[in-house]
Input
Amino acid sequence: MEEAPAVVVVAVSENYRVFKGGENMRIAISTEGEYVAEHFGRCPTYTFVDIKDGQVVKLTEEANPGHAPGNIPRFLHEKGAKVVISGGMGTRAQGFFN
Output
């Protein structure tokens, strides 16, 4: 059986904190089909999960806007994502979130 890759979770802003009930949150997941993509910047799509009061209220999928330094972190920030889930992310990409 093939071992699943580790999943990287990155906070999009310095103000990241634990979200509690009654709050809204948007999570961005780098996706390839119905799976978490192995590479953050080269995935075909990002799935956005909107959560309210601890419940998923909306799922949307958007095409990757293109792999260029800083482009995807900016795109995810503009879409309102507070957390990113990905199969892998290089240190340079991680640096754009800090």
Strands lie at 8-11, 24-32, 35-36, 45-52, 55-63, 83-86. Residues 1-8, 11-16 have pLDDT under 50 and may be disordered. The longest helix spans residues 71-78. The two ends are 36 Å apart (CA to CA).
